[in-house]
Structure prediction request, 88 residues.
Amino acid sequence: MTMGKLHKEIGQLIVQSAEDPEKSDSQVIQDIALKTKEIFTNLAPFSEVSGDGGKRVLNLEALKQKRFPPATENFLYHLAAAEQMLKL
Prediction:
């Protein structure tokens, strides 16, 4: 698995936040939570509400049409899987 731009951004955020002596553990967690929310906001246009319970699920075709770099597409797909956003 190769690292894409998104992976590097997340890694840099975690390292910079964790290395900052002025930040507490809870502030580091808040930084990571904020980045996670940003990623989910960017993933939202590629998801739709499912008919069974109103849960959001990834529309894989919409994600593929965006033509992200392969590493980013793979990361977003696996993120959706980890968050149980895949319709099986």
